[in-house]
Amino acid sequence: MKIIFLVCAFVPLFVTPLKCEDYENIYTPVLVTDLSRFCFNAAILLAEGDTKCNGAIISSTKIVTSYKCMIHFDEHHSMYLPFSKNISVRVGSTERLSGGIIRHVDNVRRISFPLDDITLRRYPNIQHAINDLAVLSFKKPLPLGPTICPIRLAEKKDDIYIKEGSLVEMSGYNTHRFRNITELRSLTSQIIEINNKCPTFHIEERFTMCSMEGAPVILRQKSNSSTTMEEPLLLGISAKGRRITVDRNEIVKMSAFSKCLMDNEKMCFTVASRC
């Protein structure tokens, strides 16, 4: 009996966990061929190595993404350091590294997310929330058209669409630094949990894509001007796309930030805010 117990106790140590590519082999994302349906997607290119991110166009001069795209760990993984100012974005292309147009980012504005109790217990000296957002802006406006377009930000009234079981789309470019996947892809997922205390919700992880930091999560609505066209609505931004969790992917809810993202309000939450 002791031998059997010992074998059972140590078997889990030799079980190889699923890797990022294993999830993608099981749940294959769809390559985007009609860019007009995803004209709001942006690829964020950073000067440091091959670290990259996703974002969503919200106006001709602004793109919203995860603030984690703007920082990185030091060599001891003990503190965050800012990236250089040499940041650019590529829009209007189904390829992350070619096509479309490139704009240099002139300004990065951090949008603070309220810290939650779990994060504070785990990181008592943390200087920013893991779910902070960033607004990238540039002086020269984007040439808006069929393949480059802003997406409408969800407002408080749109929270009625964020409910368990609702189907949503996540789209973006794979940002894994060790994988050579550059095409724009999309997948359909469903909302499985809503955080009533903090402005986040979760979508089912097994349907999402690996390394999708900053990827937009959208809902398509019927357009008022057409019976056949659908208008995309930005419900949230992927907050933890760089790691696979057991069954969920956390999404920062846009309705809590829509006003200050467009400069109608100077600040959504203070750095010291709690939720």
Which helices and strands appear, and what pairs or packs with what?
Blueprint: H1 2-10, H2 20-26, E1 30-31, E2 41-46, E3 52-59, E4 62-66, E5 71-73, E6 80-82, E7 87-91, E8 101-104, E9 107-111, H3 117-122, E10 133-137, E11 152-153, E12 167-173, E13 184-195, E14 200-204, E15 216-222, E16 230-238, E17 248-253, H4 258-261
Parallel strand pairs: 11-16
Antiparallel strand pairs: 1-13, 2-3, 2-7, 3-4, 4-10, 5-6, 7-8, 9-10, 12-13, 12-15, 13-14, 14-17, 15-16, 16-17
Give your account of this protein's structure.
The protein has a single domain, classed as Trypsin-like serine proteases (Thrombin, subunit H), CATH 2.40.10.10. The protein is 9% helix and 34% strand. The protein contains four helices and 17 strands. The protein has helices at 2-10, 20-26, 117-122, 258-261; strands at residues 30-31, 41-46, 52-59, 62-66, 71-73, 80-82, 87-91, 101-104, 107-111, 133-137, 152-153, 167-173, 184-195, 200-204, 216-222, 230-238, 248-253. It has a seven-stranded antiparallel sheet, with no helix packed on it. A six-stranded antiparallel barrel has the order 12-13-14-17-16-15. The radius of gyration is 19 Å and the shape is globular. It starts with a helix and ends in a 14-residue tail after the last helix.
